[in-house]
Amino acid sequence: MSVNTFGNTAGKAYGDTAGKAVGSTDPVARPAAAATVAALADTGGHLLPSAELSDLLGVGEADWSRFAENWDDLTLDRFMADGGTYRYRRYGQFDLTVDSGELVALPHEPYRQESYINPLNGGVQREFDPLTGKFTEDELLRGLLVLLGRLFSAVDGTAVWNIKLHPYRITAGEEVGHPAPEGRHRDGVTFITSLLIGRDNVEGGESAVYTDAGEHLLTTTLARPGDLLLGDDRRTLHSVTPVHPVDRSAAAHRDVLVIAYTAR
What is the model's pTM? Predict the structure, then answer.
């Protein structure tokens, strides 16, 4: 099957559509959004349940199901230093100007984290397949990216965000699936989010957020498509427990979208 790659859309702006996806009212003024901003400004971590996020975005089950189809098109991560073959992914990035809601797709390039941030897989240029056009042009995604940018800017006043997108499928079977093989960590960005896309025949995958001092802030198992965990990556660390198949005779996986916001 041929697809349009994210690289081919580099430089394309999505301002008008993205703005409409989150509605005409200021999203930060709505109770669920205001509670998210308050929690991020206070402890630095927050769980936004699927029902509340869906309401803010104006989307429903059909939209989440359509968006989830993209996870069947991920490719094997060939850069796992633990030798694992349980992770599938793609990668791409946007810039977001908050006031206008304009999203600009950036040229595709390798992804790099330094070893002091990611002691398992850091210190090397990792070349992942680009996001597909179907993925980047989905209205749910664009609305989500603008909404999150506005929420984060309400916390710290940032005007322009760089947004890195990491759709992951973690499989489980003979090989244990590790959503966060580096253990408790931060990603070296400003804000980090983990959005559940789906769980199929898996148990485990419990997410936790901690302060720098190791104080436990919250633990949750993202269970419904649209459940979203948010964290201020400057002040918190996070972890996810391994996933295992419920029925070992059937395929099993956990699909998430990790979105990293870094102030320009």
Answer: 0.90
